[in-house]
Amino acid sequence: MKGFPKDFLWGGAIAANQIEGAWDEDGKSIGLSDLFIYKPEADISKLHTANMTQAEVEFAVNDKEGYYPKRHGIDFYHTYKEDLKLLKEMGFKTLRFSINWARIFPSVEDYTPNERGLEFYDNFIDEIIKNGMEPIATILHYEIPLYITEKYQGWKNKSVIDLYEKYGQTLLERYHDKVKYWIAINQINLLHIEPFLSIGTCIDTVDNFEEAKYQGVHNQIVGSALLKQFAKNQGYDVQIGTMLADLTAYPENAHPDNVLLAMKHNRLNYFYTDVQFRGAYPGYIKRFFDESEIDIKVTAEEEALLKDNTLDFLAVSYYFSQMVSMELNKEQHVSYSYSSAKKNPFLEVSPWGWAIDSKGMYNCLSQYWDRYQKPILIAENGLGMYDKLENETVNDDYRIEYIKDHLIQLRECIRDGIEIMGFCAWGPIDLVSASTQEMEKRYGFVYVDKDNLGHGTGKRYRKKSFYWYKEIIETNGENL
Ligand code: BG6
User: Fold this and answer.
1) Are the CB atoms for 73 and 20 separated by under 8 Å?
2) What is the CA radius of gyration of the chain?
3) d(CA 444, CA 126)
4) Rounded mean pLDDT, 42-63
5) Per its UniProt record, what InterPro entries does this chain match (predicted)?
6) What is the pLDDT of residues 411-436, one digit of tens each?
7) 317 lines ligand 1 (CB under 6 A)
């Protein structure tokens, strides 16, 4: 029976804004992720950072009191050499990481690359390769520089396409012979859930926020195609991929209205990749725009660009499945809408309410493969939990069980003939949560002694899952 391919890329994924810290070092300017404060008194369901107003941005920029966890991460900017050794010890074959735009182009007034920022990534990428790992770079993972919000009101402004293009070209020129796999934009569909972090537009700076969101993402789709075109014209031996956060939903039951609701909900998650792999906007999304009074500016030149520059692979982050129900969506005024999810009674949830569903991974990857036939990278998967450090380790059997179950389903996909490039466990070393700013929502195989307010020694400890994942990699998943 077919198992994991011989050259399977086992590894992990991290993001600059959640791990590096050093938020104002070596010329870096402030980025949007640096604006999120941690408030101990808030309940976890309210720690979300979906939207921001102009006043909230201004407050965060000037605040001298609050603790902003992503400004500090786990100090990886200074510790990466030691941290990479731990990943090497587990036998990592790949590391997916992101580059922080505000390190490379800190200012829009003088839009020239910051050599000190580039030097950091020169050394970091060399170190990844020296430790035997294939580097996979994400060009933008929630690291939008603040000037994009302040000067342009975010990605809705077409000038941002040029800035991103120059940023991306700078990276491709410098690293194309070291980094083969590039993800243009992290989770391009997450603007449904985290619009501010995704497109950088404050909720109170535009009249039609929905339109700004979709114009912003269209501009990102154009920016990604421009980088693909550039790499192709330069003759670089690289692959440019796109990325979805899987948000595939099941219908609550077999009532045809629920089945159609789920299908339409899912289409609103697929339209990004429908454009990026098939080269044109599908009819259903044009209908959704019409009915929702969303008028996106798409030029004929952009249409031609998208048609000729479809992307090479699909990166997917998968954490949970969803279930939608007409009962929660009765108020719908358009044929298509992004639906609210209902708790699935058949699934357990994590303390953050994320439904644990390994079979959902088999389900969604099969849908993606059947739709696109593009190689798939599991760019993120894992379980965020509260861990307890005891006797210098963490007995995280829950994490082992979660990842094991997902790998078993991944093997099912491979047996079906789906081309899976690799598996990147999210946050192999504990890092700051993207959605809640908590350090204590931990995903790692390595524990970092640091709490939500930044207290702790910063010391690293190997968890039980560290040894388990090491063995999985050593045996190429044969003993699952
Ligand atoms: C993905 C993001 O959506 O989920 C990561 O790409 C993020 O940046 C991960 O950290 C897990 O989410 P969270 O909110 O638990 O950190």
Assistant:
1) yes
2) 21
3) 23
4) 82
5) GH, GH_1_N_CS, Glyco_hydro_1
6) 999 999 999 999 999 999 999 999 99
7) yes
DSSP states along 202-213: -TTS-S-HHHHH
Domain range for 377: 9-474
Closest protein CA for atom 9 of ligand 1: 434
Token pair belonging to 325: 């129900």
Distance 434 CA to ligand 1 centre (A): 5
**Does residue 15's CB lie within 6 angstroms of at least one atom of ligand 1?**
yes
Instruction: Say how far apart CA 101 and CA 112 lie, in whole Å.
Output: 12
Q: Crossing angle for the helix pair 397-415 and 464-474, nearest 10 degrees?
A: 20
Residue 2 forms part of a structural domain? no
Mean pLDDT of 450-471: 98
Domain assignment present for residue 479? The answer is no
**Nearest ligand 1 atom to alpha carbon 384:** 15
The answer to the question of residue 26 being in a domain is: yes
Provide the 8-state DSSP code for 173. Answer: H
CATH of the domain at 208: 3.20.20.80
Q: Which of 32, 74, 185, 317 gets mutated to test ligand 1 (max ligand atoms within 8 A of its CB)?
A: 317
User: What's the 433 CA to ligand 1 centre distance in angstroms?
Assistant: 6
DSSP string across 9-52: EEEEE--HHHH---TTSTT---BGGGGPPP-TTS-GGG------
- Using CA atoms, how far residue 301 sits from 161, 222, 226, in Å, is 14, 10, 11
Distance in angstroms (rounded) separating the CA atoms of residues 378 and 406: 11
Alpha carbons 290 and 451: distance in angstroms, whole number? 47
Question: Does residue 149 belong to any structural domain of this protein?
Answer: yes
Reported pTM: 0.97
Q: Structurally, how many domains does the chain consist of?
A: 1
Which residue puts its alpha carbon closest to atom 4 of ligand 1? 434
Q: Which of 318, 380, 383 has the most ligand 1 atoms within 8 A of CB, as the residue to mutate?
A: 380
Within its chain, how far is the Cα of 185 from the centroid?
8
Output DSSP code: residue 138. Answer: E
Structure tokens at 287: 């209908």
Token digits of residue 41: 């008194």
Between CA 425 and CA 388 the distance in angstroms is: 20
Residue in the structure block whose two tokens are 């990943």: 87
Distances (CA, A) of 129 to 96, 124, 138, 172, 453: 12, 9, 16, 17, 33
Q: Which residues pair with 296 in a beta bridge?
A: none
